[in-house]
What we know:
Layout: H1 3-19, E1 22-26, H2 32-35, E2 39-45, H3 48-60, E3 69-72, E4 75-78, E5 80-84, H4 100-113, E6 120-128, H5 141-146, H6 153-163, E7 167-171, E8 175-176, H7 177-184, H8 188-210, H9 217-225, H10 228-240, H11 245-259, H12 265-282, E9 285-289, H13 292-299, E10 303-308, H14 314-325, E11 332-336, H15 344-350, E12 353-356, H16 364-380, E13 384-385, H17 404-413, E14 421-430, H18 436-443, H19 453-461, E15 468-473, E16 477-478, H20 479-486, H21 505-522, H22 528-537, E17 543-545, H23 546-562, H24 576-585, E18 590-594, E19 597-601, H25 604-617, H26 622-633, E20 637-638, H27 639-652, H28 654-657, H29 663-679, E21 683-685, E22 690-693, H30 697-707, H31 711-727, H32 732-749, H33 760-772, E23 776-778, E24 784-786, H34 790-798, H35 803-811
Parallel strand pairs: 1-7, 2-5, 2-6, 9-15, 10-13, 10-14, 11-12, 11-13
Antiparallel strand pairs: 3-4, 6-7, 6-8, 14-15, 14-16, 17-19, 18-19, 20-22, 21-22, 23-24
Helix pairs in contact: 1-3, 4-7, 4-8, 10-11, 10-16, 11-16, 16-17, 22-23, 22-25, 23-24, 23-30, 26-27, 26-30, 27-29, 31-32, 31-34, 31-35, 32-33
Amino acid sequence: MSILRSFFYLLLKLPLRLLVRSKIVQDAQASVETQTRPIFYVVSHQSASDLLTLQAACKKQKLPDPLSKIKINGKLFDRTLCLEKPKSVLSLFKTKQTTALHQGLDILNQHDINKELDAQLIPVNLIWGRVPTQEKNNANVSSLLAEQASPTWLRKIFIVLFLGRDNLVRYSEALSLRDMSDNHGNDEATAHKLLRVARFHFHRQNIAAKGPRLIHRQQMFTALFANPAVMRIIKDEAKSKNLSTEQVKKQAQTMMEEIAGDYSVSLVRLGERILRWLWGRLYSDIKVNNSQVLRELAQDGHEIIYVPCHRSHMDYLLLSYVILQEGLVMPRIAAGINLNFWPAGPIFRKGGAFFIRRSFAGNRLYSTIFREYLGLLFERGYSVKYYTEGGRSRTGRLLNPKTGMISMTIQSLLRGIDRPLTLVPVYLGYEHVMEVGTYHKELSGSEKKKESMFGVLKAIKNLRNYGNGYVNFGEPININEYLNKQVPDWKAAIDPINPQKPNWLTPTVNGMANQLMTGINQCAALNGVALVALILHACENKALAKADLEKQLDFALNIQRHAPFSDQLTIPQETGSELLTHVISLNKVTISTDSFGTIISLNDSASLEMRYYRNNILHTYGLISLVCKLLTNNTKIAQKQLTEQTVNILATLKDDLFLWQTPEQMANQVEQVLVFLEKAGIAKHSKAEFWSLTDDTEQLSYTHHMAECMDESLQRLAIITSLITRLEPLTRRDLEQKVVAIAKRLAVLNNITAPEFIDKKAQATLINTLREQNYIALNEDGLLVTTETMKQLKMSVTNLVAIEVLQSIARS
């Protein structure tokens, strides 16, 4: 670097430090092995502001200085390759060539000289202002600045001034130049290919970060009115309702205005800053896992559809913020029409929300417009986010999915969209949900309050430490590939002009919806609050000595580390003691002392609240709890019998808990659990493969508390199996009514406050599963009867339920 250039860079550092704020995203952490090898960078532009911004980012990431030189085989090389020079102010349409091609070729040649050399090339994309390209008649200053591919030095000054606070530095995975040299050679063609791939790589990343061309809201309406399906429904509505075409068009225009978003980049930028401040006040930390999968999908040109679980109104803000922080564009968000109140509605609309009514029933005009609007978003390349549960979960468990949005998504493919559509399940977890108190009032019979500005102000007033937030991205579901497997000839139904609803659509949508829900549960996040809730609710009086609770927490953590529910499950790294200290700081439990020490307990109010968090993770301990229950209730049990009973019982709860495992995967986890229990000195087995618990009282307490976690689920199953066996044949309606009646009685007798225990829909889900698995069938009169397999299931279940509960069921 020349003395003059060094002096210029030195002068430029101070203003850049004041004007530039970078968000750094790494697609892959540089390994220790990579860092010991020569590292080069490749960037888009040979710009002083870019290189100094990269230098600051590399310093934070503890990576080599991109402005330094590196010696290879006795020869000095610039560490950074720049693909393009800025355009000259006097010749706007000419871009000077950089030395990147010669640099790249020279570095590749060094690998031919030194066979031990393995230089690493890290592509780094510096994106100034994540502003999408706009139609010229709607473009603003930011978009006009940002869309210039190779800006002049003068334009770059304005870019830094206007967009410097919205800078993204994205590090891609390092490329081995040794592999490039060995597999593709060291000639100029290879160097050209390397630089061409880098340019395309950066282009894809720019689209992923900024999004496709931004179209004005009114232009969306024009496109919808020109849509053949919308034109047809307007004509049909006018004819069927004896209205003029203009009258129906006015109705359609009103519906479009109710539905459509009005995305504003400036508002999103402002919102991001506000949320950064808000999360700092609300959460100790926001833990994000598996976000790399999103960037890979965007890089490969997929249309991403985020499908999260729905715990709280906070979901809209938290997930959108995380997506932005991961270097991706804000998705368009399907929000309930109940949120379209002033001033939240207009703000959400500017933030990318579009609004959906709770029901489309009987309104063909609205359903067509909404479906075609969604299809238009996909066609234009926008990512989308929607909630399949249809509303927030009041119990903490996943709700049965509403399939309308998924159905419309597939129908969009049948219009002939040529990009892959990919669903990404997202698990959202919290250590505090601000609406939990309201949920319990609603479940107790109180009327749901309509969202309003007063409610927002009240929520803001009550802001406090909410602990940690969790955002886990699950295994993507490529809709195109899913259809290829389930409906090999699905492309025959593609009709861009008049898309139909093929016969295979409903069963396919139902299967996809179930896979989405199990995918959400598969990537769950364990946390201190949920684990404390799980353990204390398994205790008779919801109380435990502090030292014992810490040990139980350690046990719960260790068993998941050695026999995990899923490889996507995230498990805290802290000890039980550290987790409990954190939970106590959140005021979630009651602390009392006696002469023997400290007791941690839940009062009635806290018990209701903590049950919600327990339900967030209950499914992850279902199998572990059943294994412990079987060991606790049997003096000894053969491993084959233990595995079969666990798998069979869990299979009946699969739809209730949205479990992802196949019977084979369940059996594998059972074996892992037994191995862990044996190594921990809690269980033992004989040469004949009979398992039993040890005689150590302290060790037995671990399995005892874990065994109780699934008690309520087993009781619900016992009610159904006992009733149908005793009262068959009977109608489905009679069975459901009697099951709910007995559940309510048991809830009073056993002080069970769980709303899902007496929920009619929850009982119906269990009955459906029993029918699907052939435990229940229909006789010639259409009445429910048991099959031969029910006897064994009933015996397995009743052996795990307390005798008092069985007596209560028998007397009912």
